[in-house]
Amino acid sequence: MAWKQLQFHTSTDKAGRLSDLLTKYGASAVTFVDDGNEPVLEPGPGEVPLWDQTCVVGLFEDDVDLDDVLQKLSAKLAPAPLPVYEISDLPDQDWERAWLADFKPMQFGQRLWIVPTAYDAQDENAVNIRLDPGLAFGTGTHPTTALCLTWLDGHDVQGRSVLDFGCGSGILAIAAAKLGAKKVSGVDIDPQAVTATRDNARLNDVTAIEVSLSSDYRGGLVDILLANILANPLKMLAAEFAQRVKPGGDLVMSGILAEQAAEVAAAYVPWFDMDAPQQQDDWVLLHGRRRTE
Question: What are the tens digits of pLDDT across the range 113-126?
Fold first, then answer.
């Protein structure tokens, strides 16, 4: 099937309304794209990344009358004018395969691989995690996730208890389980992330992961707490994380830009001995060890 694409160049405050109207008037899919070369943080669970200048892209089946769509949009948005837009034709192709084309097996550290289901494992003796892009974030492609996976690969988690706080796709929890952790818990505020983690755990034949909404979690102290979220929530969670990590245990945090590292680390100094940041591109991982006194 051939498709038509309708792109609007607009601003953050108008993007949501425009997206709703495009869906109402027949768009099969609507996406947001950076329209001003502006970097954003990896979004938290359930969040949608928006930029000051946002391109709202509606995908329509070829038989949809876009002139009619534009007239309806103009009437709904009046008296404001329609944003600048372009219409383009898209050839027929397998869009799911096109979307996955650049998502290939990736290695982290020495042992750990993320392998899309469309590919064979590069090394059958490695620790291979089967994972495709989905509703929840975390496929290893973002530096914050890559930093956490590399940390897990480089440390002995055999027999240790692990909490993945903000589990997203479950990639870190699954990696910990496959690397030998004895008990792994994953929590998230987003029900979609809980579902994604459970589905991905089943795909990887991992049964040792307990997954729940953050509000339902009642777990005890853990040896390792992983939190790949965002800098501001990490600062606010310092006291809570201190109560969840065993003395001598490890705290691993990412989702932090390099310029935010000092401020985040300072929030944890009352309880943790903090190491120097590990950096990849503009992002850092912070590791701390819970003091025993």
Answer: 988 887 888 888 89
